[in-house]
Amino acid sequence: MSYPFELMLPTLEKCGIKCDEKAIERLSLYADLLREWNEKMNLTAITDPEGIVVKHFLDCALLLKYVDLKEGARVADVGTGAGFPGMVLKILRPDIDLVLIDGLNKRLVFLNEVLNRLGLSAKTVHMRGEEAGQKAEFRESFDLVTARAVAKLNLLYEYCLPLCKVGGIFCSMKGPSASEEIKESSRASGILGGSKAQTFFETLTGEEQRAFVTVKKISQTPTKYPRVSAKIAKQPL
Questions:
Q1: DSSP conformation class of 58
Q2: pLDDT digits (tens, 9 = 90+) for 41-71
Q3: Angle 137-138-139 from CA coordinates, rounded to 5°
Q4: Number of domains in the chain
């Protein structure tokens, strides 16, 4: 299958995001595997070549415009699903130490196949984000934590900020209504050790907007957080 990478490359170049021939080759294979596996399990509603390139690959790649990742940075993608944005970040930045976290094991089976076929290494963890946040090997150990299309921000902060190290960044990828969610969740960020959120908007195609909401971890998360999933849902911060 041929994919229209010309729809994303000029934008990435303008943003200073490197996408070489090897990365294009890996993105093409990733797209092929996504379409193939999507026929037997629900990974994405977007399966046309242009949609995959713009709404998945370009969308995820633009995160690198707003987060400065050091060489070998430790990155967690919470609720990774089909691997967005984590897998795209790994393809563009093979040096990162990536952990893909998801509560549905069959998605991780798919991602392990992708990693194997692409010749890349990352850790896949069958666990919910709030469970990982209470594990010593993951808690406050990541330079960057990401989440895309997972939950509202006031819930996401509790899933994700406990995983960020102090000085690290949490970046959530949201639609154009992000501003309203930010207002509702500012208290949660402060309780969990996060800064005031910064929001950056990008237009992907036509008038469709994507918001990148970034929060810096400025102090340790109190040990009682994250709470269990049911409590987070019932009594959001």
A1: I
A2: 999 999 999 999 999 999 999 999 999 999 9
A3: 110
A4: 1
